[in-house]
Amino acid sequence: MPLTHPDNTPPPHRSEVAVNPIFAREPLHVPTYDFPAQGTDPEVAYQVVHDELMLDGNARLNLATFVSTWMEPHANRLMAECFDKNVIDKDEYPRTAALEDRCVRMLAGLWHAPDPHHVVGCSTTGSSEACMLAGLALKRRWRGTGTPNIVLGADVQICWEKFANFFEVEPRYVPMEGDRFTLSAEEALRRVDENTIGVVTIMGSTFDGSYEPVAEVCHALDELAARGGPDIPVHVDGASGALIAPFLDPELAWDFRLPRVASINTSGHKYGLVYPGIGWVVWRSPDALPDELVFRVNYLGGEMPTFALNFSRPGAQVAAQYFTFLRLGFDGYRRVQQECRDVATRLATEIAELGPFELLTDGSHIPAFAFTLREDAGSYSVFDVSAALRASGWLVPAYSFPANRTDLSVLRIVVRNGFSHDLADLLLDDLRRALPRLEAQTAPARGRESAGFAHGAGSHH
Question: Which of 7, 171, 370, 449 could form a disulfide with 360 if both were Cys (CB 3.0 to 4.6 A apart)?
Answer without folding.
Answer: 370
